[in-house]
Every structure is written in C-alpha cells, then in structure tokens.
C-alpha cells in the first residue's frame, strides 16, 4: 500500500516552527504583515484568499485584503502595489491571480518590490532561483520540496518528471528539484508519449489542471507521485467514472454539487505508487504554509534578523 504524504501534517509542523520566529519578531516590536490584493469577485480566488487570511490570523501575522473592483485599471492597481511597497508594516504582498483581462498582469507582478514578493514569482526572484541564490521561492513548489524532505524521500540522483511548465508551479518546481540534484524532465501539452516519459519517473509531479489524467499506466510502480492539480468537477458521470461508482464519493458530490479531484487518478495512484500526495490534503495546505514562511522571512530580513529566504 502506498504511503500517504500528508500535507496537513507537514503544514502543522511548519506553522509550529514559525511560532517562535514570530515571537522573536514580536519581542522586537515587529509583527509580520501580509497584504493580499483580490480583484473582483472570483469565488475560487475568494476561498483561496480567505484561507490565507485565516492562516495569518492563526499565527498572529497581520493581514490586510485590498479588494479593487473587477473594472480596475492597470494604473489603479499599480498605485495599490506602489502604496504597499512603501508601507513599513507590510512585509509580503500577494496579488491573487487571475487578474481581469484589461489589466496588464505582467506589469503588476513586476511592480511588486522583489523583497516583498510573498509569492516568489517576481522575475528577479525567479532569476535568483535559477542561479541558486537565496530569495523568496514560489510557494507551491517550495511546499512540494518540504513535503519530500519531511517524508525523507530521496531526491538526489533520482529521475524527476514534472508535467506542466507554468511560471508558478512547473518551471520553479523543476528548478528546485534540479538544485536538489534530481535529473529533471519537464513535460507539457506538446510532449509526445507523455505516459512513457512519466513511467521513467522516480518522482512524478503533476501540475496540468486536467482531472485524473495521470492514470496507472503513467506511474512507475513504487514511484513518488505529487499531485498539484486542483480541479472542481461538476459532472456527476465523470465523478462516477473516476471513482468507479463509489457510493461515498457520489454522496459527497450530491451534497456539494462538485468534487475536488487532482490531476492524478486517485485510485490508480494508491495502487501503483510507493508514496503520493492526495487531493485534497496534499500540496494545497503547504502552499499556504510556505506563503506564511515567505512573509515571516521577509519580516525577519527587514528587522535585521538575517534569513536567507
Ligand atoms: P497552467 O494552466 O498555467 O499550466 C498547465 C500546464 O500543464 C501547462 O504547461 C500545459 O502545457 C500543461 N498541460 C496541460 N494539459 C496537458 C496535457 N494534456 N499533457 C501535458 N501537459 C499538459 O496551470 P498551473 O500550473 O497554474 O496549475 C496547474 C494545476 O495545479 C491546476 O489544477 C491548478 O489549479 C493547480 N494549482 C494548485 C495549487 C495548490 O496550491 N494546490 C497552486 C497552483 C496551482 P502547455 O504549456 O503546453 O500549455
């Protein structure tokens, strides 16, 4: 039976480790502060932001949500970011994506002061990642490496395959795995024989946004499989097919009208993998935990308590 990589457990460990660091800052009269910019009324984004704010409250991190309307312009949003860049009590800034089409998202992300980039996706910080220099790391990829490390899953010398090449997950996790001395292959929608490449992986990271598409034939028996996918399925027949008519899953679907499924087939992975992160309860909680880590580390740097990242 495959080992379950429990993201909630690792999140709790990370939060417990942050508590004394936050107390040390408090002793210097400093409370870490995170500002979240949430444009418009995207229900999924609202849930993500609520969870981030709750995590801040649990830890005693100051948080603030700025909610410009859906009609906001690039210039207006640049002004919001500029004000947060200059504000002493704010250590981390996060602009929740996606932004509306009229906003130049690249300009907004570039405007965030790199030292306050709580999401670790500013090109300056991406450059530091590529060069192996200390800087805030992208939260989901950093969480994945934490999960592997805390479950003592060897990375050095292993063959890692990352499916997905986005700036927030695929590319940065590939670089983190590379720096941890894995031999890394990045796959995407134009990759031929995806299953064949995935089957070579000792560590397989799925970040595509395609529900349950990494099936058993993609998984080398005994591999470690990290499922980043977060797909809300609203099609009952699809739920029935994925979960092989599980009465429990169908009841859960009927109650909520949708079901959260990863990119990895949840039943196949349990049969084939040596270890895997489930959805929900795998990578998701770690993303928020690493956001807290980035915010606290930024506060420490700004308070003169040196922290690399
Ligand atoms: P993007 O849509 O930005 O990127 C998806 C990537 O997957 C692209 O590189 C795309 O290839 C590739 N891809 C899509 N379809 C296929 C296919 N059939 N075969 C091979 N590759 C494919 O997504 P994100 O990276 O932002 O997110 C990926 C998933 O992870 C989503 O479900 C998202 O919700 C989830 N997520 C979860 C987080 C968490 O905290 N748990 C955090 C962030 C994301 P190409 O480049 O060629 O188009």
Task: Give a description of the structure.
A 6-stranded parallel sheet has the order 1-11-8-7-5-6. It has a 3-stranded parallel sheet with strand order 3-2-4, with helices on both faces. Helix 2 links the parallel strand 2 (33-37) and strand 3. It has 2 domains: 29-118, Rossmann fold (3-Layer(aba) Sandwich), CATH 3.40.50.10860; 139-286, Rossmann fold. The protein is 45% helix and 14% strand. The protein has 12 helices and 11 strands. The protein is globular and about 50 Å long. Helix 3 (74-86) packs parallel to helix 4 (105-111), helix 6 crosses helix 7 (170-179) and helix 6 (139-150) packs across helix 12 (283-302). It is of the alpha/beta class and 309 residues long. It has helices at 7-27, 43-59, 74-86, 105-111, 123-131, 139-150, 170-179, 194-198, 236-242, 247-256, 266-272, 283-302; strands at residues 3-4, 33-37, 62-66, 92-95, 159-163, 183-187, 203-206, 224-227, 231-233, 259-261, 275-276. NADPH dihydro-nicotinamide-adenine-dinucleotide phosphate binds next to helix 12.
Largest sheet: 6 strands, parallel
| Nearest-integer average pLDDT | 97
What is the strand tally?
A: 11
The parts where pLDDT drops under 50 for at least 5 residues are none
> So what's the CATH class of the largest domain?
Alpha Beta
Question: Portion of residues in helices?
Answer: 40-55%
Fold-level CATH name of the largest domain: Rossmann fold
Taken together, the total number of domains comes to 2
Q: SS-based structural class? A: alpha/beta
The CATH fourth-level homologous superfamily of the largest domain: NAD(P)-binding Rossmann-like Domain
User: Ions, cofactors, ligands: which are bound?
Assistant: NADPH dihydro-nicotinamide-adenine-dinucleotide phosphate
Question: What Rg do the Cα atoms give?
Answer: 20 Å
First CA to last CA: what distance? 36 Å
Tell me the fraction of residues in β-strands, as a range.
Answer: 5-15%
CATH architecture of the largest domain: 3-Layer(aba) Sandwich
Number of helices: 12
Categorize the overall geometry: globular
Q: What is the string of SSEs from the N terminus onward?
A: EHEHEHEHHHEHEHEEEHHEHEH
């Amino acid at each position: 039976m495959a080992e379950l990589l429990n993201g909630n457990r690792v999140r709790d460990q990370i939060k417990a480790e942050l508590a004394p660091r936050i107390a040390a800052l408090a002793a210097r009269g400093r409370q870490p502060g995170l500002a979240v910019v949430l444009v418009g009324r995207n229900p999924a984004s609202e849930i993500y932001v609520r969870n981030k704010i709750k995590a801040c409250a649990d830890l005693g991190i100051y948080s603030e949500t700025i909610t410009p309307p859906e009609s906001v312009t690039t210039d207006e949003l640049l002004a919001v970011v500029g004000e947060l860049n200059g504000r002493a009590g704010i250590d981390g800034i996060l602009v929740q994506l996606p932004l509306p089409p009229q906003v130049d998202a690249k300009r907004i992300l570039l405007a965030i002061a790199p030292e306050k980039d709580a999401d670790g996706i500013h090109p300056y910080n991406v450059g530091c990642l590529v060069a192996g220099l200390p800087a805030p790391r992208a939260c989901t990829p950093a969480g994945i490496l934490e999960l592997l490390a805390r479950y003592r899953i060897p990375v050095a010398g292993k063959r890692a395959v990352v499916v997905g090449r986005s700036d927030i997950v695929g590319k940065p996790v590939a670089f983190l795995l590379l720096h941890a001395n894995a031999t890394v292959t990045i796959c995407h929608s134009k990759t031929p024989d995806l299953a064949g490449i995935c089957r070579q992986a000792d560590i397989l990271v799925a970040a595509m946004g395609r529900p349950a598409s990494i099936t058993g034939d993609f998984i080398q028996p005994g591999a470690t499989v990290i499922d980043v996918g977060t797909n809300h399925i609203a099609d009952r027949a699809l739920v029935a097919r994925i979960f092989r008519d599980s009465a429990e899953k169908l009841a859960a679907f009927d109650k909520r009208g949708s079901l959260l499924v990863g990119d990895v087939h949840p039943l196949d992975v349990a049969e084939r993998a040596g270890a895997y992160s489930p959805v929900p309860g795998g990578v998701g909680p770690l993303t928020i935990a690493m956001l807290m880590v980035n915010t606290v580390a930024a506060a420490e740097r700004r308070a003169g308590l040196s922290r690399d990242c």
